[in-house]
Write a structure and sequence with these properties.
This protein is an alpha+beta fold. It has helices spanning 14-17, 68-79, 120-126, 152-161; strands at 27-30, 33-36, 59-63, 86-90, 138-141, 146-149. The chain has a domain at 1-8 and 55-170: Glutaredoxin (3-Layer(aba) Sandwich).
Amino acid sequence: MTDISTLTASPVDFATYGHYAPPPSAFVEVNGKKTVDYPFQGRLSDDARTKWPAEPGRYHLYVSLTCPWAQRALIALKLRDLDDIVSWSAVDPVRDGRGWAFREGPGHGPDLVNGFALLREAYLATDPGFDGHVSVPALWDRATKRLVSNHFPTLTADLESKFGRLGRPGTDLYPSWQRAALS
């Protein structure tokens, strides 16, 4: 059996891989402006009969501690006290042309869930033809072995509002009167 804790990316290498930039295929036009596309937009649900029910131990959140959008998702996870419900891991904050990578360092380390060396591997496991922008936060489903979402607004809203009684009681980070905006 392979020890997945030893699977990490090689050191950052700008000379070989260059600097990271989203590929041209990562952009879509919205209202006459080019913007980055977030192709995985699955939603968690309180309903156990849906594709992605909010179940303890089922999901893993990939973040970079340097990304403000990923920080928001992690803050929601922490404030809701969902650490034992949704696991998480952080990628190396420095990325070369390969994108986000799992390396040992302060606040980040190997991917202990899947043993990926690069976060791109999670995207390719979900869509083998994927050639877009690899972003964080990204929510992984252990049951289906695929990404649920890399769409930070709805992903964060789901962490703020799903998992009902499993989180910290009385903590409502996403008031019901605002939820229609991201439904």
